[in-house]
Batch of 2 targets.
Target 1
Amino acid sequence: MKERYKAELEEAIAGALTRLSDRERTLLRLHLGEHMSIDELGTMYRVNRATAARWLAAARESLVTGARDALRERLQLSDRECESIAALVQSDLQVSIARRLS
């Protein structure tokens, strides 16, 4: 069951990533793929730490919402079912997202 939904979720993530802005994708890539801290992101973008944190949180939320909506539509799931599937494959998500962003 985990393998079946993992592939579906990865496709939903790939689609959601394409709908992110360039800045959102870059923030996620730097934070998840290159392990840059919020402080480092703030310095790089020349904004304070709080602004970098808000930008990163918004990028994550956009990604999660986009992937969840795509998965729910594709598999005709309820919100609860969609959350259950995401929890089932959660351990693989960060690796999948970081790999797709690099």
Target 2
Amino acid sequence: MSEKPAPKKKKGKPVSAYYRIEKSGIVRTLPTCDRCGPGYFMADHGNRYSCGHCGFTRYKTEGAQTK
């Protein structure tokens, strides 16, 4: 019997996707976690932001949804 090949790892977004360059300097595109601090970005899930490190969830208001 032959062994199954190892599954390929999914590649995430490049680090440059989390920042935007403007005249005033570098701007973060996603919010940071309120609990974990400035080193942890929150994932955008349409109607909410979620921290992958601690699980903190912040729901978006009706007027601020971007998808």
